[in-house]
Amino acid sequence: MGKMDFLKEELNRLKAEGRYVNIRALNTPQGAWVEIGGKRVLNLCSNNYLGLANDERLKKAAEEAIDRYGVGAGAVRTIAGTMELHEEFERRIAEFKKCKSAILFQSGFNANLGSISALADEGDAIVSEELNHASLIDGCRLSKAKRYVYKHLDMQSLESTIKEALEEKPRRIMIATDGVFSMDGDIAPMDEIGEIAEKYGCIVYVDDAHGEGVLGDHGRGIVDHFNAYGKVDVEMGTLSKAFGVMGGYVAGDEDLAEYLKQRARPFLFSSALNPGDVAAALESVKILEESDSLVKKLWSNTEYLKQKLKDLGFNLGTSKTPITPVMVGEEVKATELSKTLFEEENIFAQAIVYPTVPRGKARIRLQPSAIHSKEDLDYAIDSIERVGNKLKLI
Ligand SMILES: Cc1ncc(COP(=O)(O)O)c(C=O)c1O
């Protein structure tokens, strides 16, 4: 037996358990329609909420930055990787989020890993939402703080978990939560969380990956949506979803970014984001500041799609955002729905199954975008109705 034979065994086990993820390669840019293996399909999968991933203005900004600064940042930020662009982005995103400082990371995942582990240490406690994204969970695991988990969206559970943590007399308690939950599309009540945090003196950390560009005035995110300014201490965001590019950031009060620049390990030990990406993301922030038309289009598309699917009798779970889960239940049925939509109807909508969601709560997750036309949505609705009837989902 070879030393690495365990890889094949593990892969076979994943396949047997239905947990093997098939990765489809696109040969077109992200858009309303994409091409996969020579087949043109309606894209209802991507997090390209505002359609900025292939926007001409962003591409032009990236091209100009590449002409001026080249393709690579050359080093970690603390050595030689910081360009004026990185600092300009940090100023602009802080302003957009109505915060006093911001720090740029290479991805949202890195932002969570680096910031949580730098903000909470031995002797501290992290009270973490049950359905938090993997990057928050991993950030908590990396930190030496003691971890406690509270029930999904349950404020009584949050309060009793804080009381439980207090029994150990931690130096500080940090509440860590997703703003919008990526598999269900429901929203953490940041106003109530803020009040509970105030009562017990807890730090509040929110992952706004699916909130920015989507919620709040001009897509400023979840804090703006709840008018919870002053109640949230740390706002993390990604530049890879509504902003259409790549990268992550953390925003907050004056000292936050300065502190993280000294302590967050992905900032200190991984090279800076490429100039083209930073310039493109900066252009996204400018576009959102100038106009809320894309955000409005995203919401009108979302409302149209959701209402039509509800009218047809589909169960869309508890979503309050563009994330539109079409609940199926059994894993095999969700996979069949996704496969039939792809093969017979030219619709790209991935199935989400255990362990990403609990067993028996399998679904397909639809992601409407501002770039879908009404015809695109009608096409999707007709197809989903046809396949839903065929599979006896409605
Ligand atoms: C809630 C949440 N946080 C963080 C991330 C990570 O962001 P990025 O793709 O920029 O690494 C994601 C993306 O998958 C996410 O959904």
Main attributes of the structure:
binds pyridoxal-5'-phosphate, globular, Aspartate Aminotransferase, domain 2, alpha/beta, 3-stranded mixed beta sheet, Aspartate Aminotransferase, domain 1, about 15% strand, about 400 residues, 7-stranded mixed beta sheet, 2 domains, about 45% helix
Shape: globular
Taken together, the total number of domains comes to 2
CATH hierarchy, class of the largest domain: Alpha Beta
Report helical residue fraction: 40-55%
Quick one: how many beta strands? Answer: 13
- Provide the CATH architecture of the largest domain: 3-Layer(aba) Sandwich
Largest sheet: 7 strands, mixed
How are helices and strands ordered from N to C?
HEEHHHEHEHEHEHEHEEHHHHEHEEEH
In terms of structural class, how would the helical and strand content be classed?
alpha/beta
- What compounds sit in this structure? pyridoxal-5'-phosphate
Task: Walk me through what this model shows.
By secondary structure, the chain is α/β, with parallel strands linked by helices. It has 2 domains: 56-290, Aspartate Aminotransferase, domain 2, CATH 3.40.640; 293-367, Aspartate Aminotransferase, domain 1. It is built from 15 helices and 13 strands. The longest helix has 19 residues, at 293-311. The radius of gyration is 21 Å and the shape is globular. It binds pyridoxal-5'-phosphate. Pyridoxal-5'-phosphate (PLP) binds next to helix 5. Residues 107-109, 112, 133, 135, 178, 182, 207, 209-210, 238, 240, 248 line the site of pyridoxal-5'-phosphate.
Topology:
Elements: H1 5-16, E1 33-36, E2 39-43, H2 56-69, H3 77-81, H4 84-96, E3 101-105, H5 108-119, E4 125-129, H6 134-142, E5 146-150, H7 155-166, E6 173-178, H8 190-200, E7 203-207, H9 222-225, E8 234-238, E9 248-252, H10 254-263, H11 265-269, H12 275-290, H13 293-311, E10 324-329, H14 331-345, E11 347-348, E12 351-352, E13 362-366, H15 374-390
Parallel strand pairs: 2-11, 4-5, 4-6, 6-7, 7-8
Antiparallel strand pairs: 1-2, 3-9, 8-9, 10-13, 12-13
Helix pairs in contact: 2-12, 4-12, 5-6, 7-8, 13-15, 14-15
The chain binds pyridoxal-5'-phosphate (PLP).
